[in-house]
Recover the amino acids of this structure.
Protein backbone atom coordinates (compact mmCIF):
# COMPACT_ATOMS: atom_id res chain seq x y z
CA UNK A 1 0.00 0.00 0.00
CA UNK A 2 1.30 3.48 -0.90
CA UNK A 3 0.10 6.45 1.14
CA UNK A 4 0.88 10.01 0.03
CA UNK A 5 1.59 12.65 2.67
CA UNK A 6 0.95 15.95 0.97
CA UNK A 7 0.23 19.59 1.76
CA UNK A 8 1.50 23.03 0.94
CA UNK A 9 4.74 24.65 1.98
CA UNK A 10 5.01 24.96 5.77
CA UNK A 11 2.00 22.73 6.44
CA UNK A 12 4.02 20.19 8.40
CA UNK A 13 4.43 17.24 6.03
CA UNK A 14 7.91 16.65 7.41
CA UNK A 15 6.62 16.54 10.98
CA UNK A 16 4.15 13.79 10.04
CA UNK A 17 6.89 11.97 8.12
CA UNK A 18 9.30 12.18 11.06
CA UNK A 19 6.67 10.75 13.43
CA UNK A 20 5.97 7.88 11.02
CA UNK A 21 9.70 7.11 10.73
CA UNK A 22 9.94 7.07 14.53
CA UNK A 23 7.05 4.59 14.57
CA UNK A 24 9.06 2.33 12.25
CA UNK A 25 7.47 3.12 8.88
CA UNK A 26 9.43 3.80 5.71
CA UNK A 27 8.82 7.31 4.35
CA UNK A 28 10.11 8.25 0.91
CA UNK A 29 10.87 11.98 0.67
CA UNK A 30 10.27 12.87 -2.98
CA UNK A 31 12.25 16.15 -2.86
CA UNK A 32 15.36 14.61 -1.30
CA UNK A 33 15.25 11.54 -3.51
CA UNK A 34 14.68 13.62 -6.67
CA UNK A 35 17.90 15.54 -5.91
CA UNK A 36 19.82 12.31 -5.30
CA UNK A 37 18.48 10.73 -8.47
CA UNK A 38 19.45 13.80 -10.48
CA UNK A 39 22.95 13.87 -8.98
CA UNK A 40 23.60 10.16 -9.44
CA UNK A 41 21.91 9.31 -12.74
CA UNK A 42 23.94 9.67 -15.90
CA UNK A 43 20.71 9.10 -17.84
CA UNK A 44 19.05 12.14 -16.21
CA UNK A 45 22.14 14.30 -16.72
CA UNK A 46 22.25 13.29 -20.36
CA UNK A 47 18.57 14.14 -20.82
CA UNK A 48 19.04 17.52 -19.09
CA UNK A 49 22.00 18.32 -21.33
CA UNK A 50 20.20 17.22 -24.49
CA UNK A 51 16.69 18.53 -23.83
CA UNK A 52 17.32 21.63 -21.70
CA UNK A 53 20.87 22.85 -22.35
CA UNK A 54 24.41 21.43 -22.42
CA UNK A 55 25.33 24.35 -20.13
CA UNK A 56 23.51 22.76 -17.15
CA UNK A 57 26.08 19.94 -16.87
CA UNK A 58 29.64 20.88 -15.89
CA UNK A 59 32.19 18.15 -15.14
CA UNK A 60 29.34 15.60 -14.97
CA UNK A 61 27.61 17.64 -12.26
CA UNK A 62 24.37 19.60 -12.52
CA UNK A 63 24.81 23.35 -12.34
CA UNK A 64 21.61 24.00 -10.40
CA UNK A 65 21.87 27.78 -10.70
CA UNK A 66 22.10 27.57 -14.48
CA UNK A 67 19.32 24.98 -14.60
CA UNK A 68 17.04 27.13 -12.42
CA UNK A 69 17.73 30.23 -14.51
CA UNK A 70 16.75 28.37 -17.67
CA UNK A 71 13.68 26.49 -16.47
CA UNK A 72 12.13 29.26 -14.41
CA UNK A 73 12.29 31.57 -17.42
CA UNK A 74 10.99 29.03 -19.91
CA UNK A 75 7.80 27.11 -19.08
CA UNK A 76 8.46 24.54 -21.83
CA UNK A 77 11.89 23.73 -20.37
CA UNK A 78 10.37 23.54 -16.88
CA UNK A 79 7.84 21.00 -18.16
CA UNK A 80 10.68 18.98 -19.68
CA UNK A 81 12.62 19.03 -16.40
CA UNK A 82 9.54 18.00 -14.44
CA UNK A 83 8.70 15.15 -16.79
CA UNK A 84 12.27 13.78 -16.58
CA UNK A 85 12.50 14.04 -12.79
CA UNK A 86 8.93 12.98 -11.94
CA UNK A 87 9.22 9.87 -14.12
CA UNK A 88 12.46 8.88 -12.38
CA UNK A 89 10.98 9.45 -8.92
CA UNK A 90 7.91 7.35 -9.74
CA UNK A 91 10.14 4.53 -11.02
CA UNK A 92 12.21 4.74 -7.83
CA UNK A 93 9.11 4.69 -5.60
CA UNK A 94 7.72 1.67 -7.44
CA UNK A 95 11.03 -0.15 -6.95
CA UNK A 96 10.65 0.37 -3.18
CA UNK A 97 7.10 -1.02 -3.06
CA UNK A 98 8.55 -4.51 -3.34
CA UNK A 99 10.49 -3.96 -0.11
CA UNK A 100 7.70 -2.61 2.14
CA UNK A 101 4.12 -3.64 2.86
CA UNK A 102 3.31 -0.01 3.61
CA UNK A 103 5.16 2.81 1.90
CA UNK A 104 4.59 6.48 2.69
CA UNK A 105 5.66 9.15 0.21
CA UNK A 106 6.07 12.81 1.15
CA UNK A 107 5.35 15.21 -1.70
CA UNK A 108 4.05 18.74 -2.08
CA UNK A 109 3.10 18.22 -5.72
CA UNK A 110 1.11 14.99 -5.71
CA UNK A 111 -0.91 15.69 -8.87
CA UNK A 112 1.61 17.73 -10.81
CA UNK A 113 4.15 14.91 -10.41
CA UNK A 114 1.51 12.31 -11.36
CA UNK A 115 2.25 10.47 -8.09
CA UNK A 116 -1.51 10.49 -7.44
CA UNK A 117 -1.75 7.74 -10.08
CA UNK A 118 0.29 5.29 -7.98
CA UNK A 119 -0.98 5.96 -4.44
CA UNK A 120 -3.72 4.06 -2.63
CA UNK A 121 -4.50 6.71 0.01
CA UNK A 122 -3.85 10.42 0.53
CA UNK A 123 -3.14 12.21 3.79
CA UNK A 124 -3.30 16.00 3.53
CA UNK A 125 -1.43 17.96 6.20
CA UNK A 126 -3.00 21.37 6.76
CA UNK A 127 -2.24 24.50 8.74
CA UNK A 128 -3.53 28.07 8.62
CA UNK A 129 -1.63 30.32 6.22
CA UNK A 130 -0.25 32.53 9.03
CA UNK A 131 1.19 29.50 10.83
CA UNK A 132 2.72 28.28 7.57
CA UNK A 133 4.23 31.68 6.81
CA UNK A 134 5.86 31.90 10.26
CA UNK A 135 7.28 28.36 9.93
CA UNK A 136 8.79 29.00 6.51
CA UNK A 137 10.26 32.38 7.50
CA UNK A 138 11.94 30.68 10.45
CA UNK A 139 13.07 27.62 8.46
CA UNK A 140 14.03 29.04 5.07
CA UNK A 141 14.48 32.75 5.67
CA UNK A 142 12.21 33.60 2.74
CA UNK A 143 10.31 36.87 2.74
CA UNK A 144 6.61 36.97 3.54
CA UNK A 145 5.91 37.96 -0.08
CA UNK A 146 7.90 34.98 -1.45
CA UNK A 147 6.07 32.57 0.85
CA UNK A 148 2.63 33.93 -0.03
CA UNK A 149 3.55 33.56 -3.70
CA UNK A 150 4.47 29.90 -3.13
CA UNK A 151 1.31 29.27 -1.11
CA UNK A 152 -0.80 30.79 -3.89
CA UNK A 153 1.02 28.77 -6.56
CA UNK A 154 0.13 25.58 -4.67
CA UNK A 155 -3.58 26.42 -4.36
CA UNK A 156 -4.45 24.67 -7.64
CA UNK A 157 -2.64 21.55 -6.40
CA UNK A 158 -4.72 21.58 -3.21
CA UNK A 159 -8.03 21.96 -5.03
CA UNK A 160 -7.39 18.92 -7.22
CA UNK A 161 -6.95 16.54 -4.29
CA UNK A 162 -9.36 13.65 -3.90
CA UNK A 163 -12.23 14.38 -1.52
CA UNK A 164 -11.76 11.01 0.16
CA UNK A 165 -8.36 12.09 1.45
CA UNK A 166 -7.71 12.14 5.19
CA UNK A 167 -6.91 15.54 6.68
CA UNK A 168 -4.35 16.06 9.44
CA UNK A 169 -4.47 19.43 11.18
CA UNK A 170 -1.03 20.74 12.16
CA UNK A 171 -1.92 24.16 13.53
CA UNK A 172 0.36 24.05 16.62
CA UNK A 173 -2.78 23.72 18.78
CA UNK A 174 -4.34 20.39 17.79
CA UNK A 175 -2.36 17.34 18.99
CA UNK A 176 -0.94 15.64 15.91
CA UNK A 177 0.00 12.21 17.28
CA UNK A 178 -3.60 11.10 17.98
CA UNK A 179 -4.52 12.13 14.43
CA UNK A 180 -1.73 10.00 12.99
CA UNK A 181 -2.77 6.99 15.10
CA UNK A 182 -6.36 7.45 13.92
CA UNK A 183 -5.18 7.56 10.28
CA UNK A 184 -3.09 4.42 10.79
CA UNK A 185 -6.08 2.67 12.36
CA UNK A 186 -8.21 3.61 9.35
CA UNK A 187 -5.61 1.85 7.19
CA UNK A 188 -5.72 -1.20 9.44
CA UNK A 189 -2.01 -0.98 10.27
Amino acid sequence: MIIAITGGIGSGKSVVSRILRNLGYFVYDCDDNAKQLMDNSDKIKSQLSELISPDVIIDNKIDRVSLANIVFNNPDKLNILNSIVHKSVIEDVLSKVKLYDTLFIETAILHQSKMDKIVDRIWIVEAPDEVRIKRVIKRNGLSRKQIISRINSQKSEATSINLSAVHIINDDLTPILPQIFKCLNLLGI
About this structure: The CA atoms of residues 4 and 68 lie 27 Å apart.
